[in-house]
């Protein structure tokens, strides 16, 4: 790649100034900056789509068994959750 010296940079700057004019040059530079930002965000989005980061999974909640005493478990028709037992409908 050729090295750009001071005179080459000045010539390029003068050509750009003549092409765009002194009033349009700041607007053109601003538009160019916005375009680069959008391009950078889009390429980052493509890279993220290509290699998705693992999503954080919430930890499962522990399931607690209801407390039942051995005496309650031996009784027929006893309720497990502490509510009143349901009567048989024969």
Automatic annotation (TrEMBL):
One of its GO terms (cellular component) is TAT protein transport complex. InterPro entries: TatA/B/E (IPR003369), TatA/E (IPR006312). GO terms for biological process: protein transport by the Tat complex. Keywords: Cell membrane, Membrane, Protein transport, Translocation, Transmembrane, Transmembrane helix, Transport. It is a single-pass membrane protein. The chain crosses the membrane at residues 6-22. Residues 43-52 have a biased composition (Basic and acidic residues). The keyword Transport applies. Gene3D superfamilies: 1.20.5.3310. Residues 43-90 are annotated as: Disordered. Part of the twin-arginine translocation (Tat) system that transports large folded proteins containing a characteristic twin-arginine motif in their signal peptide across membranes. TatA could form the protein-conducting channel of the Tat system. The Tat system comprises two distinct complexes: a TatABC complex, containing multiple copies of TatA, TatB and TatC subunits, and a separate TatA complex, containing only TatA subunits. Substrates initially bind to the TatABC complex, which probably triggers association of the separate TatA complex to form the active translocon. This is Sec-independent protein translocase protein TatA. It comes from Frankia alni (strain DSM 45986 / CECT 9034 / ACN14a).
